[in-house]
Amino acid sequence: MVSLQLGSSEGSFQQPRPQRRGIMLLLGVMVALSLGLASFYTWRQGSLFAIGCLFGLTLYHASFGFASSYRKWIVRGDVNGVLAQLLMLAVATVLFAPFLLTRSAQGAVAPVGLQGVVGAFLFGIGMQLGSGCACGTLYTIGAGSSMMLFTLISFCLGSFWASLVDSWWSGWPRLQPHSFLGDWGLLGLLSQLLLLGGLAWAIRQWGRQAVPEPERASLPEAQFGAEPRPPRWQQWVFGPWSLAAGGVVLAVLNTLTLWIAGRPWGVTWGFTLWTAKLAQVLGWDPSSTPFWSQGFPAEALQQNLFADITSVMNLGIILGSALAATLAGRMGVRKPPSRLGVIGALLGGILMGFGARMAFGCNVGAYFSGIASTSWHGWLWIGFALLGTLLGIRLRPWFRLPS
Predict the structure, then answer these.
(1) What average pLDDT does this structure show over 110-117?
(2) What is the pLDDT of residues 223-241, one digit of tens each?
(3) In whole angstroms, how large is the CA radius of gyration of the chain?
(4) I need a surface site. Which of 27, 96, 247, 265 has the fewest CB within 10 A?
């Protein structure tokens, strides 16, 4: 279960039945919003919304899940998702380097400390109970998952709660921000690429030992090459994409975000801001909280949500995944599996939101963009998020969630 073909995805191909009305409606909304954002704000805002739509389409067509990839690796020995993430990180590391070395953009580099350890661990638990990560929550909502709405709501509440109590960990020990590129230049870049390559080799070998050859040969992924495949253009439009193709496209899109926005892709800040805006409408006073009374957070509260880069990209992810689902003919509302599943989603969202705020980001801002920026905190994040994932997987049966 360790093949990463660029032209296939898990399972056999079925002729798609595009939902034409939905496609036309979504394309109209997306074009109108992109042009509107470009007109009322800047061309960058309209472009970043369009890139958000492409993120959503890519995540859906490649079924690129972070939480599910870790669970498949740990429970079933399926390393394909993790290998695709390592490929994504390697490509993004190379593409980010010219911008970061010339300082034409700012990488996702944050302090290394105890709060990052605790936050990443909480996030790891949360993404297993919530059955998704930060971007996974958005793109599955776009595709019709009603349970992930509960995860999103509690994710927003958890991240906002953490912003109100960030003084709790302000005195915890931590190092100043460090990155391989910043400390060692091109040698740091090469070091990270060697590290990623070494991890990919080790995980690939582990996957071969974890799943015997006869069992691998019987899996749908191994048999896909014998199935009829669609023409190349049709596959890119209607899906499915392979995990490897999805990882490469995500790396390219994150680089475009870095170039246009001046900083890499992030998700969680949008959730925090949405909740703060709602709380403000309900009578909350931002001046009562140090985090919201000064600097960038205070400015963001004064502006329209459409002026916020993360918010418009998050909206783009939802619409882009909805478009991908209608192109594949699979758009439809899916009910939560059970009441206990909803409770798990709510608890998981709280843990992810609170943990992401503590750890300077989620699986996108801290892990993907952090490691692509060669930040030390990105490596710390994934290490402790995986430890939290181990505990989260053990807790899933309590909420009748399949492992």
Answers:
(1) 96
(2) 333 344 556 778 888 889 9
(3) 20
(4) 27
